[in-house]
Design a protein that fits this description.
Blueprint lengths: L42 E4 L2 E6 L2 E6 L2 E7 L12 E21 L5 E22 L2 E15 L6 E5 L4 E5 L2 E16 L9 E7 L16 E5 L2 E2 L2
Antiparallel strand pairs: 1-4, 2-3, 3-5, 4-5, 5-6, 6-7, 7-10, 8-9, 10-11, 11-12, 12-13
């Protein structure tokens, strides 16, 4: 009969006969795992907010886009800026309101009415930050527009009994895709935030409805949120 002091001490993790235990105790315990923090330096953000009021017109909109770095070249650490390939997406909403637009009836009389445009959609993009704020970008987006079409067949109805009139503007809805490919420069000189000046070309310009697209021409010159041309 074996004596008690000849028996091995009890263990909660027996070691196989052919394997030696790790120094210092049980090698199966890794401690308490910690969550890996998100590397914010790999993100780029383009806030894109606009608000303007002119005579007879108000514009408001936002189009925030966020990208994440998926690839970085070997020279990235030797350059200034967040160099590399980014993939991302965002949403878009535009509103334009028109006040006191003049319309003429068949008699040449002028009547006035208000109109509204709403644009809602979003898209995805791939962007390569080249060097010190310079970048190249391809962005595909789909925008749905609800428009008071005052360029269409506007009808002016006059009530001859009381002399009042009513301007009827047809409302239309259009879903228009766009694929913008171009180059730009970040005016903020920031690694993460973008306020770009950019020149792009809408590859889908020839197959989209130019009369109702927010990019009526193939060439698009953009300053921040605003399309200059």
């Amino acid at each position: 009969m074996a004596q008690d002091d000849e028996l091995p001490p009890p263990t909660s993790s027996p070691t196989p006969q052919n394997e030696q235990p790790a120094p210092g105790g049980n090698d199966n315990f890794n401690g308490f795992a910690t969550k890996k923090k998100v590397d914010l330096s790999k993100f780029i953000i383009e806030p894109n907010v606009n608000f303007s009021i002119t005579s007879g017109r108000i514009d408001f909109g936002f189009s925030p886009y966020v990208g994440y770095k998926v690839w970085e070249p070997a020279y990235a650490k030797r350059t200034r800026g967040n160099v590399g390939l980014f993939l991302g997406g965002g949403i878009t909403y535009f509103y334009t309101g028109f006040k006191n637009i003049g319309f003429q009836d068949y008699s040449g009389n002028t009547y006035y009415a208000n109109a509204h445009w709403h644009t809602l959609g979003g898209g995805v993009f791939a962007q390569y930050n080249i060097w010190r704020g310079f970048f190249a970008r391809a962005k595909f987006e789909v925008l749905h527009r609800r428009l008071d079409d005052f360029y269409g067949n506007v009808d002016v109805q006059l009530n001859t009994q009381n002399g009042t009139y009513k301007v009827i503007i047809p409302r239309i809805e259009k879903t228009i895709p766009a694929l913008l490919v171009g180059v730009g420069y970040n005016l903020l000189q920031s690694k993460n935030f973008f306020f770009p000046i950019m020149v792009s070309y809408n590859v889908l310009n020839n197959i989209s409805d130019k009369n109702y697209s927010i990019y009526p021409r193939g060439l698009v010159v953009q300053l921040g949120f605003i399309n200059i041309f």
